[in-house]
Amino acid sequence: MATLKNIPIIHIYGGAITTGAIDNQIRNAVTKLSHFHLVACNLYRNRLIKMGEKGNRIKTIGISSLNKMVKLKKNYTKVQLEKILNIKFENKTSIITIHPVTLHPNESIDMVKNIFGVIKDLNLTAIFTYPNKDQGNKEIIKEINKFCLNNPKNTKFIKIFKDDVFPSLLNNIDIMIGNSSSGIVESASFKLPVINIGNRQSGKLIPKNVINSDNKYNNIKTKVKYGLSNVFKNKIRLIENPYQINTKTDISKILIKLNKIDNILIKS
Question: For 146-164, what is the mean pLDDT?
Answer without folding.
Answer: 93
